[in-house]
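Q: What residues go here?
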């Protein structure tokens, strides 16, 4: 089946990251990691039972959070708020989708025909979920030390750059300071949508300044959606400020 064939190709990719070959018995978690729910549903309709990668995605998400949080806590002297923002940025959908593309997961994910037709291979949500599922599979087959090493090999540089940079990453704080100084008001964040299953929820948040909606963004958590919306709003207000000074 396609997901098992692609799992063997995936293991060839992982060899470049120091992983050895596995026997056929250990291949299954990697095959499942590549099986999007649309593919699993189509296979079940044809009489073949193929688990989707959703359970592995749930596990991988938790492993990612712990590895990045542990690394931040033990490596950098940052406040709780700063660590939260760095972690949220590093494990955001856009960040994980970028890693998935670099690993070649885009060409290995197994999708249903409908999802394939609608450009599923380019969707950040599907790519990020596949990467989380891959992390879950690596954890199951190779254990904590190996999965930690792998995660830091692909995300460690992003953590370092954000943790040591003076570039604004806490856009909620930056936006609050900007609106207080310019308008004497605080931004309001409104959750306007919450979609998807409990393990893969997506939140949509709007930023308002009194009666003016400034920006809208979505994310895998309320914190991520708020940060993304705050970033957009901050950049819009800074652009307006610069335009007025010209």
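A:
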């Amino acid at each position: 089946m396609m997901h098992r064939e692609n799992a063997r190709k995936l293991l060839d990719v992982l060899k470049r990251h120091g992983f050895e070959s596995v026997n056929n018995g250990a291949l299954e978690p990697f095959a499942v990691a590549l099986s999007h729910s649309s593919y699993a549903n189509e296979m079940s309709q044809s009489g073949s039972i193929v688990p989707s990668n959703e359970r592995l995605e749930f596990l991988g998400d938790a492993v990612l959070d712990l590895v990045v949080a542990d690394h931040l806590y033990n490596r950098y002297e940052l406040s709780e708020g700063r660590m939260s923002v760095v972690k949220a940025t590093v494990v955001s959908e856009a960040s994980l989708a970028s890693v998935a593309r670099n690993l070649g997961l885009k060409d290995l994910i197994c999708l249903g025909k409908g999802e394939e037709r609608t450009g599923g291979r380019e969707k950040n949500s599907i790519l990020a979920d596949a990467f989380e599922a891959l992390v879950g599979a690596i954890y199951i087959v190779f254990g904590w030390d190996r999965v930690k090493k792998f995660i830091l090999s692909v995300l460690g540089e992003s953590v370092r750059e954000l943790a040591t940079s003076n570039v604004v990453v806490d856009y909620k704080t930056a936006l609050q300071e900007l609106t207080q100084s310019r308008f004497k008001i605080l931004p309001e964040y409104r959750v306007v949508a919450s979609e998807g299953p409990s393990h893969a929820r997506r939140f949509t948040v709007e930023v308002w300044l009194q009666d003016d909606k400034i920006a809208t963004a979505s994310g895998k958590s309320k914190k991520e959606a708020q940060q993304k919306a705050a970033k957009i709003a901050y950049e819009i207000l800074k652009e307006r400020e610069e335009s007025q000074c010209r």
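A: Context that may help when evaluating the design: The chain has two domains: 2-164, 171-243. The domain at 2-164 is CATH 1.10.1520.10 (Ribonuclease iii, N-terminal Endonuclease Domain; Chain A).
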